[in-house]
Write the structure tokens for this entry.
Amino acid sequence: MLVPLDLPPGFYRNGTDLQSSGRWRDGNLVRWRDGAMQPIGGWRERSVAAMPLVPRSARAWRDNSGDQWLAVGSFDALEVFRASGDNFDLTPTDLAEGLKDANQNTGFGGGFYGAGNYGVPTIPSGTFQEATTWSLDNWGQNLVACSTEDGRLLEWDLVTTEKAAAIDNAPTGNLGLMVTEERFLFALGAGGNPRKVQWSDREANTVWTPTATNEAGDLELQTNGQIMAGTRVRGQALIVTTIDAHTATYQPGGLFVYGFERVGTSCGLISRQAIVSIDEGAFWMGRGGFFTYQGGAVQEIPCDVSDYVFRRINSAQESKIWAVENPEFNEIWWFYPNGTECDEYVCYNYRDQFWTTGILPRTAGVPRGVYPNPVWFGADGTVYDHEVGINHNGSSPFCETGPISVGNGDFTFSALMLIPDELTQGDVRAVFKTRFHPNDVERDYGPYQMHNPTSVRFSGRQVRMRVETERLSDWRVGTMRLQVNKRGRR
């Protein structure tokens, strides 16, 4: 009999190995498009100077003349790159020095309830201090920026011989900023109050004192959380705290300028850079789950890999987690630290609603748009163009299924032949791993280089298939079929 290995796209990595039966479970650097598995695009170094410090935040934009700019913030510096490859240091001479790594309080009162062993004393080690990140946005063609450590609202007017300068009259001690669709500059966590939103007059980012003749104002959110980030969504500003989410809607001619509404609870943001906004809405990573706001109320996104991802995150460095959209493939990528820096990713395809995971060390980046390709940064400051060619810098894309059974696992079987479904036959090879019981010792068979058909020889009650390649190839894999004979119950 022929058993089609017709598995839905994406990974399932929750619970036990057997729970991923009939699904893809593990892999790296792969995606699905039009139902076929393929490697993600490769990358190449850009011919620009590397950032001297670990990049933490990035923003790309075009000025009024069409020139391309790329701003990058690290814990202790703010730089800007031109498309020509020139880079300029915008760091104010009096910028408050930030933290490259987070400092975690592992003593009493630090961490989460239930962590550690009851009755075992802990040694206090200070309060938690997050790794320094930046809020970056545009006020027209100018760059506006705020470092979480420095707290001032800075502006840079494209004069490459000048540094970014503090905006006159703006509040200090802020946690971030954003520019609304109506051209108000929002200071988030304004003046050292972690729940306060303060905004300038419309089209006037140096006017912050409310009067009868302007629209400057402020409001303290009714929340127990701390404001983490703000982003533009269709017709509104979305502000997410550590525990909930609020919208700000412009009310022209109204008494309060902006109307605020809580649109989600228990949906706090895990880090300040872990949110993106696209046409479909805003998407972000929380502590233990993923969320989206598409108007109305915040919704939790069902995630087939949440167990795997949240167990691997180094919670002491979670403030470094960042997100970026990849609109060409309908994807949102979150990069998170398993070690000290962000070295792994989880990716969500929001159109087809499936998840993939993998290993790729990147600490900041911008999507395709201003530049022809996504531009992402390595921890050493190297700048990469992504989705370019098929060279993965020595890493080999692969994908592996969960256990596949014949007859619901009631029978053992012998496999005799594999009928491949490939675009570039011979570029991909298969390895099979069999067991007779879920926790049995696994036996490997292969690798088998693909032919049409491919002779194989193995037996078991359940089998996993690994698809891998050692060639540089833009391969595609569809529905493989396995010829098997039942051997009876065991």
Confidence is low (pLDDT under 50) at residues 108-115. The first helix runs from residue 306 to 312. The radius of gyration is 25 Å. Helices lie at 306-312.
